[in-house]
Design brief:
With 604 residues, this protein is of the alpha+beta class. The chain has four domains: 150 residues, no CATH class; 181 residues, no CATH class; 134 residues, 2-Layer Sandwich (Alpha-Beta Plaits); 113 residues, Alpha-Beta Plaits (2-Layer Sandwich), CATH 3.30.70.3190. Helix content is 24%, strand content 24%. It contains 15 helices and 25 strands. Strands 14, 17, 18, 19, 20, 21, 22, 23, 24 and 25 form a ten-stranded mixed beta sheet that branches. It has a four-stranded mixed beta sheet with strand order 11-10-12-13. Strands 2-8-7 form a three-stranded antiparallel beta sheet. A hairpin with a 2-residue loop joins strand 22 and strand 23. The protein is elongated, with a radius of gyration of 42 Å. The protein starts with a strand and ends in an 18-residue tail after the last strand.
Length: 604
Amino acid sequence: MIVRPGLDERGDDALREPCRDGEADIVSAAGVNHADNVPLEIDERPAAVAGIDRGIGLNDTRERERPVGELERSVDATDDACGQRSLEPVGVADRSDLLADDGVVLAQGQRWYFARNVIDLEDGQIAVVVAADAPVPRAPGEGKTCYPRLPDARDMITEDARALLATGAVCDSCLGRPFAERSFGLTNAERGRALRTTVALADDDDFESTEPADCWVCEGYCGTFDAVAETIVDALEGTAFATYQVGTRVPPLVEENERLLREDAGLEPDVGESMKRELNREVGRRVGATTDTEVDFDRPDVLAVVDLAGFDPLEALGSESVTGHAVDVQINPAFVYGRYRKLERDIPQTEWPCRECGGSGSQLGDDGEEPCDYCGGSGYMYDTSVEQVVRPHVVDAMDGDEGTFHGAGREDVDARMLEGGRPFVLEVKRPRFRDPDPEALEREINDAAEGAVEVDGLRLATYEMVERVKEHDASKHYRAAVEFGNAVDEAAFETALDELEGTTVEQYTPERVDHRRAGLTRERTVYGIDGDLRSPTEAEVRLHGEGGLYVKELISSDNGRTEPSLAGLLETEAEVTALDVTGVEGEDEPFELDAYFRDEPSER
């Protein structure tokens, strides 16, 4: 007798007495043990099962004969009891070890209820136990016999595909999309066609394909991949790029069709992948193959956004492209890094619009509009700037629309930027060429600047270099010409410099910038300072300070807003008459790390 402790004992119907309700558990009816289920208690009596005799009932048992099927074979796993009892978690009662614990019962001509795990025994006819993975035999005189078996993933996939096909006309792509996470290396259309074929073979039905034009889910859009890709390629004509990305806007009604497809088939709403994702990939793959470029999901050179509502898919099915307004091509900026030297004073880093006319270059006079008196009609406070020297050449070299200058801080207008120079990035908007010759570009800029500005170390940079230049902590080196209000002796000068060496100063917002900076106290460190007294009232001071240190105020005290200061320590007025910045370097690491560049440094 087979008993499942603590569980439903439907097996009693098969092995103890006639079935009262006409149904019996197939495992119990077979008198078998599933190694994957909980162990069964085994009564020590000969194993028995109802025989094939059509004239007997369930309570008329016979000694079980050797099971039908090929039992003399090697053991594949512990679920195979044939010949290797040592591998079985529980043996059969008669110790013959001939009964496979993963067996099945075949019911001749009866109903099979898989969900309830039962067979109908109305006629009292069951067959002998056979090994689950033994070759399927034919019952004598009965023709083909159907063997119920445990489901596997293949059955589930076939059933899901059959349910999807039952919703209506579905093209191969839409049929395969819910299975996108299975069997990589296939397109959804290939998955869908394979599933359609499998269902037709399993059901012995005629194979009938569905074209995208007849698909109720995508409404034809899955047949437009080639046309959309060709439209994108046409839109990118004349634009040089190495990386790309494709995005798609799917009409709400099509998205609703996708939801209904899965709902009607009884599938999870997010199973597989969306049509948007498939179209991005399939169209993107075609664009990449045509242009010999690579996809980049982080920061592509170009981004093509496809609006499916912008064209009729049925018209596009017979065309090589779709209407151009359905595709929006965005060309992302390009970036050129370098360092500049400002060799003349009174040149701002960036354009400085006239404070009187606001940059318009005109003013309203007695006779109407006339040139601005303050800027002479130029619209700028200064005739030129570092930005105005550099930007036009870089933008032209990359065939861009416009450019923006980003500097690693800025020096005063009246200060020079010498020696190693100051890091900067020139951002070019909508460039149609991305690989200018940096050395040729340097020569062009320097020749045009005529000695006022120089650039050096130009390289093609990444987007991240903009943030690095603007946010990376950097220290500065300065050289200042200082004039004192009273005579200063050498000893007092040296003592004052020693006291400033390594000190942290407190600087309240200087008077000269308080109109554009918040009023607060900032602490900055003087890393190093030395100097030479050229005369009792003149000196040269060289210092290395933390970024953001106001050097002019460190010398003058700014009417006590900076403490300590050179003027305060010497107890006399002090003023910077000329200032040069001689170095801008990263605090912890240099600006120029390879990770922030798109090219290799040139050997110069």
